[in-house]
Amino acid sequence: MSSSPDSGPGPGPDIDVLVLGGAGVDTIVYVPELPLPYADSHMIRPGIETRAGQTGDFVALGLHRLGLRTHHLDLVGADPEGDLVRALHRDQGIPLTEVRQPAGTKRAVNLVGPDGRRLSLYDATRGHDDDRLPPHTVKALAARSRHAHVSLTQPCAHTLPLLREAGVTISTDLHDWDGSAAYHQSFAFAADIVFLSTTALDDPERTLREIAVRGRASVVVGTAGAAGALLLTGPDEDLHHVPAVTPPGPVVDSNGAGDAFAAGFLYAWLAGADPVTCALHGTVAGAFACTVPATRTEAIGRDALLAEVARLGSPDGGPRPVPGHVRIEG
């Protein structure tokens, strides 16, 4: 669906989280192993499927399933891929403000191995350097929002000063940043909460501390898959290790696990929970995502998240579950 950024029920925030960017379509190809051996052809089972859902879509869905009032803003094409994105938001009930993208909707091919690892191939022709999200639209939606989650796409970089002016807190996900690529730095140093994968980092602690020192982040989280996550709450604070949790089923795909972690973390953070408790919510949501095949777009619900956090929470001062209703009222 498309919605007007100027509509809303009067003063005060009526959007808990504004998600910017990251709308697109993935074609999922299950392969016998990664890296895929060279051959003239491979027989693919259970088949090749195309579905809507990239990083912004997954974060928006995760937040929405947890009961937060979520709104998604991005450039979307007038093409079959755009129809899939629009249908996903319509069917899930997630408001979408779409800006027309003449180059077409973002798309990618994900090769998924038997162990759930993936290799993503992104179509770099679906955008231009001068792509922008209209400033008046960003400002209007930000004025209605409590928090903004900014995807790591080129148009979103230009929204960061606008969001800061609007006074909303900002989170971002740097994904597999190597700790030095210049493109990611504007996101890393402008956000209040920074998520990133430790996969490509030679020294994760050094990178997390650099983000905290050079930027404005009060929380930096490095996710490490089955090794859990690293949590830093200030440049001079101790680095905290958050253990991984056991997934509720077989691990079939890691696609969307980082997005699910961010959604679970933000759910607890908006409820006022401490960072360790927020990270526990994130690990539970991320573990659930690893049990969902890449051909489906699904996220953990609030009741299931809270039940698992309550089960894992320690009675002697460890992480505690947040209230079951965290909606932000104006």
Automatic annotation (TrEMBL):
The keyword Kinase is annotated on this UniProt entry: yes
Name of this protein: Adenosine kinase
Tagged with keyword Transmembrane helix: no
Superkingdom of source: Bacteria
Transmembrane regions: none
CDD domains cross-referenced by the UniProt entry: adenosine_kinase
Gene3D superfamilies the UniProt entry points to: 3.40.1190.20
Molecular functions per Gene Ontology: kinase activity
A Pfam family that the UniProt record links to this protein: PfkB
The entry's keywords: Kinase, Transferase
Domain Carbohydrate kinase PfkB: from-to ranges: 17-297
Species for this entry: Streptomyces roseoviridis
InterPro entries attached to this UniProt entry: Carboh/pur_kinase_PfkB_CS, PfkB_dom, Ribokinase-like
